[in-house]
Amino acid sequence: MIHFEHVTKIFDGRSVIDDLSLHIERGKITVIIGTSGSGKSTVLKMANRLLEHDHGRILFAGQEIRNFKPEDIRRRMGYVIQSTGLFPHWTVAQNIGTVPQLLRWSQAKINARVDELLAILSLNPDEYRLRFPHELSGGQQQRVGVARAMAADPEILLMDEPFGALDPITRASLQTELKRIHRLFGKTILLITHDIDEALMLADHLVLLDDGRIVQQGDPLSILMRPANDKVIEFIGRNDIGIKYLSLELVKNHVKQGVAVNDVKIAEQATLKEALSEFVAQGVSTMTVVDQMQRRIGVVHFNDLLHGMKGFGASQVKGDGA
After folding, report:
1. Whether the predicted pLDDT of 314 surpasses 70
2. Whole-model pTM above 0.70?
3. What is the C-alpha to C-alpha distance for residues 135 and 302, in angstroms, rounded to an integer?
4. Where is 213: in which H helix or E strand?
5. pLDDT in tens, 215-233
6. How far is CA 168 from CA 21, 191, 289, in A?
7. Cα 65 to Cα 70: distance, rounded to the nearest angstrom
8. Which one of 162, 244, 252, 286 is separated from 195 by 20 to 30 angstroms, measured CA to CA?
């Protein structure tokens, strides 16, 4: 979808992005994480030509992005920022319809798209269509920002710290909402964050950026299992890597045949962290695992979870400094 090939960006004589090669895969959520000043937002802005790269090539749909007019490429990429950027004197419907209006959609088509997106994002169209941004909560404004970015059905969503200004509960809700939308539509998403927990939860492909260079990239579980060096371990959090692992690994991967000696059930799509919490809360050593139809598929054992964590710890020792 988007290829960065040996891309460099220079500000005031200093390379803020240094020989970056990265592939943003179609239909996946790619998350770039790094500290302030690592260059992550610069990568995002180069993708839609808000900033021009100085060296290397950036390909979009197989073509060098400089072959596109900036306005054309931006209409093919939805853009969501932390502050939402909603027009304060426009209604929710007008804000969402911004790009379709520029593309000269009929008003009936725009209205239908606005109502569709509001419903998808859990905002009742009849209740919210005519409201103004100041009449919405922060989470509702961010939902409208996402709807506006999706309005013209762009090929890719670019999201720059989209949930960073929200309270933890609203932030968690919108992270879940984004995962749900991704499952529904399979959109290609490039998201920037400084929050490792958010990155691990959302990413199909995770990229750790430091001082304009990629330190490590891969799926979140492989990075947790095999951190490239001490810098990656410190960034993830040396003291709670195990908890982060539990948050990613699913119960369905630890199901065994057998029958639990109690009536406690857990979904196969639950994480091991959720399973651990349930084991402790219920005071049991086994639980029945069920599928989406609540059909029994086996059991999960508390001791297996502990043994798995021991194996995870061993892999950390082997991977340290690799």
Report:
1. no
2. yes
3. 48
4. strand 213-218
5. 999 999 889 888 898 888 8
6. 33, 18, 30
7. 8
8. 252
